[in-house]
Amino acid sequence: MPDVATRSTVQRVTDLEAWAFRTGKDLADIKETLHDLPKIIREEVMTYTAPMFEEVMNRMATKEDLSALSTKVDGLEGKVDNLDAKVDSLEVKMDARMDSFEGRMKSMEGRMESFEGRMESFEGRMESVEGKLDLILAKLD
């Protein structure tokens, strides 16, 4: 039988059928054909599946690959935990700064209210002085 690996599957099946079911042969030839048939089928299956298994084996991850990946993931988890701690620390600092800022703002609001009170008092005095000046100017005319 010619080299099985070099022909198309359809041609190989056709040749296999022609070889396996030859007509005009005696019973001994048929028995030999039936005896060789499992070997031929096995070769056919191996020819078809070997490249697929080779491809699977080439792409399959090894224990070492998985172990290296696991180590990388563990390292990333450590970095993420470290980042979480830093973010938590920043949140605490920002909360403290916001509280301090809010305290300053309230203090400034209190000062502004005190200033506004003084301004109103000053405006009242100015109006009183203006009123007295108007009286003095009226008496002088």
TrEMBL record:
It comes from the Bacteria. Keywords: Coiled coil. Gene3D superfamilies: 1.20.5.110, Designed single chain three-helix bundle. SUPFAM superfamilies: Tropomyosin. Residues 66-132 form a coiled coil. This is DUF1640 domain-containing protein. It comes from Streptosporangium vulgare. The lineage of its organism: Bacteria, Bacillati, Actinomycetota, Actinomycetes, Streptosporangiales.
